[in-house]
Design a protein that fits this description.
Elements lengths: L6 E8 L4 H7 L14 E3 L4 E6 L4 H4 L2 E7 L2 E4 L1 E10 L2 E7 L6 E11 L2 E5 L6 E5 L16 E3 L5 E9 L4 E6 L5 E5 L3 E5 L9 E4 L3 E7 L3 H4 L1 E8 L2 E10 L2 E13 L6 E5 L5 E5 L5 H5 L7 E5 L15 E4 L3 E7 L5 E7 L5 E8 L7 E8 L6 E6 L12 E5 L4 E8 L2 E11 L9 E4 L5 E4 L3 E6 L12
C-alpha cells in the first residue's frame, strides 16, 4: 500500500500530449500512452504521478490536467512538474480527488489552458482500491484572512463574516449588504456588518426553517419568503422586515406533505416569479401527480397565485422530484439549475429550460451526476466582477464532501460542464449554504459561521472589501 503523501508510481500513467501541434491544427492532442499499473491499495491521500512530454517548459506551462474517477471528470489540483525532462517527458504529479472507500478506475487527460475542447484522449486505466477516508491527513481549519489559490492561479482571501450561528439552514444577501440567516431551529438572524458573535434575532418562527429568499423588490417592500417544516408538512410564508423585526406574516402555502428528513428550497427567478421546490415525502406516486405539490417545483406569483402563463392554470413547473437541494439560474437567465438527491440515492445537477411559447413548459436540457456522496445543500452562480474568472461559474456547497465545488462551462454552451474543482476541501466542516453577491463575492456557510471569499485587498488602495 502506498504511504500517505507519497506518489503513486509514475510508471502507472504515461501521458503524451503534443499540445503545440494540436493548437496549430485545431486537433486534439494524441491519445495518452496506456498505463502499466494493474492495481494498488491506497489511502487516497497520495499524489498521482505521470510523465508529460512537451517541447519545453514554455509549452508545459500551457497544460492543465483532468482526472476521471469512474468516468467522472474533475481538474487535478496542485499539479506540478519538474523543470527538466527525462527520457519520457517532464515528471508531474497532482493531488488525488476525494474518493469513497472501495475500488475505482482512474484515467488522466491533458488539455490546454483556456480550451477544454483541446483535450487529449484519456490515458490507460489505473485501478486503485481506497482504504478508509480520503480526507487530507494534515487538514487544518481555515484561518481568518488566509490566502487561497485555485488550480488556475486565482488568489482569494477568506474573511470570517460572522460566527456563533446555531445550525444554519440557509442565507440571503440583501441589496444593501445585510445578510439574513435562517437557523434550522426556527430563528432568523440579520448581520449588519462583520461580527464574531451571534447577530440579533429578528424572528423566532417556532418551526424548522429550511430555506429563505428575498423578494426582488425587497429594498422597497422588505418581503422575506421562508419555507418551514413541522412534523410531516411544509409551509411557505411571507414576512416583512421592518427595522429589526419580521412582521406581517402571510401564509402562501400550507400542509404540503414532507419527508421525515425534509428538504425544500425557495428562490426568485429572473422573471421575478417565486419558485418553491418540495421533496416527495417518500411518495413517488404523489411526486408524479400534478394535483399534489409534493415532489414538485412550483412557479408562483409573489402573492401565491398561479401566473397566467403556466400550463393548465397549474403552478407545477417540474415534477418527479425526490429531494431538492438547491436552485439557481445561469447568468443569462435561460436555464434553471437544480441539485437533487434522487430516489436511488444519487445526487445530480439538472438543467431545466423553458420555451418562449405560452403556456411556459419546462424541459430538461442536461443532467450531471455529482461525484462521490456530496450531500449537496445549496448552489449559486457567479455573475459579478469581483473575480472576473469566476463569472458564469457555478458553486455547489457540499455538506458531506466538506468542500465547495466549482463548475466551469464551455464558452459556447453554458449548459455544458467541462471541468470541476473542489475549493476549501478539508478546510471547513460541512458546508450548508453558498451565495454570490452582485459584485461576485462568494459567501459560504457552515452550520455555525459564514465566510466571504474575495480577491486579496490591493495594498495600493485603501478601504475595505465588502
Amino acid at each position: 500500500m502506498a504511504a500517505p503523501g507519497t506518489l503513486l508510481s509514475a510508471a502507472i500513467v504515461l501521458l503524451t500530449a503534443a499540445a503545440t501541434a494540436a493548437c496549430e491544427t485545431g486537433n486534439r492532442p494524441p491519445a495518452p500512452s496506456p498505463g502499466t499499473g494493474t492495481g494498488e491499495t491506497i489511502t487516497g491521500r497520495e499524489r498521482i504521478g505521470w510523465d508529460q512530454p512537451a517541447q519545453g517548459t514554455a509549452e508545459l506551462a500551457t497544460f492543465r490536467y483532468a482526472i476521471y474517477v469512474d468516468g467522472t471528470r474533475s481538474e487535478i489540483a496542485d499539479a506540478t512538474c519538474t523543470s527538466t525532462a527525462g527520457p519520457t517527458g517532464f515528471a508531474c504529479s497532482g493531488r488525488l480527488p476525494v474518493m469513497p472507500p472501495g475500488t475505482h478506475v482512474l484515467e488522466i487527460a491533458a488539455f490546454t489552458s483556456g480550451d477544454a475542447d483541446a483535450e487529449s484522449a484519456r490515458s490507460g486505466t489505473l485501478r486503485v482500491t481506497v482504504i478508509g477516508s480520503t480526507s487530507p491527513a494534515t487538514a487544518t481549519p481555515l484561518v481568518n484572512g488566509e490566502r487561497l489559490t485555485t488550480v488556475d492561479g486565482i488568489q482569494l482571501s477568506a474573511v470570517l463574516v460572522v460566527d456563533g450561528i446555531a445550525d444554519l439552514a440557509d442565507m440571503a444577501l440583501a441589496p444593501d449588504g445585510r445578510l439574513l440567516i435562517a437557523e434550522r431551529g426556527g430563528r432568523v438572524r440579520i448581520v449588519e456588518d462583520s461580527v464574531n458573535a451571534a447577530p440579533p434575532v429578528v424572528a423566532d418562527t417556532g418551526a424548522e426553517l429550511l430555506s429563505l429568499a428575498l423578494a426582488p423588490d425587497f429594498a422597497s417592500t422588505g418581503h422575506v419568503f421562508v419555507i418551514h417544516s413541522q412534523p410531516g408538512v411544509f409551509g411557505l410564508v411571507r414576512y416583512r422586515l421592518q427595522g429589526d423585526q419580521l412582521i406581517d406574516r402571510m401564509r402562501i402555502l400550507a400542509d404540503i406533505p414532507a419527508s421525515p428528513e425534509p428538504s425544500a428550497v425557495v428562490r426568485f427567478g429572473p422573471d421575478a416569479k417565486l419558485y418553491a421546490a418540495f421533496d416527495d415525502a417518500n411518495d413517488r406516486d404523489a411526486a408524479e401527480r400534478l394535483s399534489d405539490w409534493g415532489g414538485k417545483i412550483l412557479r408562483l406569483n409573489p402573492d401565491g397565485r398561479t401566473p397566467d402563463d403556466q400550463p393548465a392554470a397549474s403552478p407545477v413547473f417540474w415534477s418527479g422530484l425526490a429531494s431538492p437541494r438547491g436552485l439557481d439560474w445561469g447568468p443569462d437567465g435561460n436555464a434553471l439549475w437544480m441539485a437533487e438527491r434522487g430516489p436511488d440515492g444519487i445526487e445530480r445537477l439538472r438543467v431545466l429550460v423553458t420555451g418562449v411559447d405560452r403556456p411556459r413548459r419546462a424541459g430538461q436540457r442536461a443532467t450531471y451526476v455529482l461525484p462521490g456522496e456530496p450531500w449537496t445543500t445549496s448552489l449559486a452562480f457567479s455573475r459579478g466582477d469581483a473575480v472576473p474568472q469566476f463569472h458564469g461559474n457555478l458553486f455547489v456547497a457540499a455538506r458531506g464532501a466538506g468542500s465547495l465545488l466549482r463548475v466551469q462551462f464551455h464558452q459556447n454552451d453554458r449548459t455544458r460542464a467541462v471541468t470541476t474543482e473542489k475549493l476549501l476541501e478539508g478546510r471547513m466542516e460541512g458546508l450548508r449554504a453558498v451565495q454570490v453577491s452582485e459584485d461576485g463575492a462568494i459567501y459560504c456557510a457552515t452550520g455555525s459561521a459564514v465566510w466571504r471569499l474575495t480577491p486579496p485587498p490591493d495594498p495600493r488602495k485603501s478601504g475595505v472589501i465588502r
